[in-house]
Write a structure and sequence with these properties.
Number of helices: 14
Pathway: Amino-acid biosynthesis; L-proline biosynthesis; L-glutamate 5-semialdehyde from L-glutamate: step 1/2
Oligomer: single chain
CATH class of the largest domain: Alpha Beta
Bound molecules: adenosine-5'-diphosphate, ligand VHF
Radius of gyration: 22 Å
EC number: 2.7.2.11
Function: Catalyzes the transfer of a phosphate group to glutamate to form L-glutamate 5-phosphate.
Family: Belongs to the glutamate 5-kinase family.
Helix content: 25-40%
CATH superfamily of the largest domain: Acetylglutamate kinase-like
Catalytic activity: L-glutamate + ATP = L-glutamyl 5-phosphate + ADP
């Protein structure tokens, strides 16, 4: 059967298309490579596979309206994205005889679990009405600090949010090579990756095209995010329809990243891979020795320092004085309150109150494995 994994036909996939495919001439929008990708999407849908498209290209598409001889400031890139997003959406829209919808997201939208759930709800409603969701980062409204920053990571977050079985990242290379194939002619393509360890990470570097954002590094981050959620991931060459014919026939045209056999629980996955820490709580090194697979407990007397400004309910990183990252979790206290607790002559009633309200919530605790 076409489009299969070991269990049968995929129910839902996320397809990520990089800027190099939208704007092969480095600016504007071209349908040269989009035709083959659109054909694959149509075939998938005809065979009952729901598709979510994550499309880059708004900055490249919008750049033709701006003076590109000068260095691009963040404000200019945001303006390019605002202009180019419409052109990019129109290009996709022209290629389909079904409806498409635009979902523009930022890290801030994915950061709060209720908003994340709301995005899920919208995506499912679109899919159930046979509308193709086309996702991009809302570059026009975000500062660099508030961004996911690249669509590879965004596509993995979306794949987790919509319970996709497969993430396909289409780029301008066949897949992951032992080194950047554009600078090292001896680099060899890896067909299958079981574990994304330091050896694999060391193979990837940034982009060398004028329009790409994260290069192979962010694709590996995305593959790690997706596979740890049980999502099979491919990096394929979107410049050729051969890749899509192969995928459709159930073959591997690029690099295949195997999903974890025991995926993380959804909420822990969201905490680990989607939610960004807004600050840090530094605890004594002894606490680092007591971490268990799914438990970490400490109280105010174990806190050595509080870094950054965060409110109660926001995500924090817990690490030791030596710098070992222990966990990400929801803080039940603001940085302001925790700083008060550090004060030697803190009020006794404040300590009692804190004892009744643990510093981190056990429900969202994600223990981090040190790399
Ligand atoms: N080990 C590697 N294997 C393959 N490509 C690599 C590797 N390291 C760096 N790259 C670079 O990553 C690029 C793809 O990333 P990028 O330009 O960001 O594409 P996209 O716009 O599709 O996201 C390749 O064209 C290549 O230059
Ligand atoms: N949001 C940006 C794309 C950022 C990005 O990750 O680009 P790419 O590396 O080409 O996938 C845009 O639409 O131009």
């Amino acid at each position: 059967m076409a489009n299969t994994n070991s269990k049968g036909k995929w129910n839902r996939i996320v397809l990520k298309v990089g800027s190099a495919l939208i704007a092969p001439n480095k600016k504007g929008c071209s349908s040269r490579y989009l035709l083959g990708i659109a054909d694959f999407i149509v075939k998938c849908r005809m065979h009952g596979t729901q598709v979510v498209l994550v499309s880059s290209g708004s900055v490249a598409a919008g750049s033709s309206s701006f003076d590109t001889s000068k260095k691009r400031s963040i404000a200019v890139k945001k303006a390019m994205a605002a202009k180019g997003q419409m052109e990019m959406m129109a290009s996709w829209d022209r290629l389909f005889d079904f409806e498409v919808a635009q979902l523009l997201l930022t890290q801030g939208d994915l950061q709060i679990h209720e908003r994340y759930e709301s995005i899920r709800e919208t995506a499912f409603e679109l899919l159930n009405n046979d509308i193709l969701p086309i996702v991009n980062e809302n570059d026009a409204v975000t500062s660099d600090e508030q961004k996911v920053g690249d669509n590879d990571n965004l596509s993995a977050m979306i794949a987790a949010a919509v319970d996709a079985e497969c993430l396909i990242i289409c780029s301008d290379v066949e897949g992951l090579y032992t080194d950047n194939p554009n600078t090292n002619k001896d680099a060899v393509l890896l067909k299958e990756v079981e574990v994304i360890d330091d050896r694999i990470l060391a193979m990837a570097s940034g982009p060398d095209s004028a329009v790409g954002t994260g290069g192979m590094r962010t694709k590996l981050e995305a593959a790690e995010k997706a596979t740890s959620n049980g999502i099979l991931t491919y990096i394929v060459n979107g410049l050729t329809t051969v890749s899509f014919n192969q995928l459709f026939a159930g073959n591997n045209p690029g690099t295949k990243f195997l999903p974890f056999k025991q995926p993380l629980d959804d909420r822990i996955h969201w905490m680990t891979h989607t939610s960004k820490a807004q600050g840090e709580v530094i605890v004594s090194n002894e606490i680092g020795e007591q971490v268990e697979d799914d438990a970490l407990s400490f109280d105010h007397s174990d806190i050595v320092n509080v870094v950054g400004d965060f409110s109660s309910g926001e995500t924090i990183l817990v690490r030791t004085e030596k710098g070992k990252k222990l966990a990400k979790a929801t803080s039940q206290h603001s940085s302001c309150v925790l700083n008060l607790m550090l004060n030697e002559d803190v009020d006794e009633s404040a300590i009692e109150w804190q004892e009744d309200n643990p510093i981190i919530s056990e429900n969202t605790l994600a223990i981090l494995e040190e790399k």
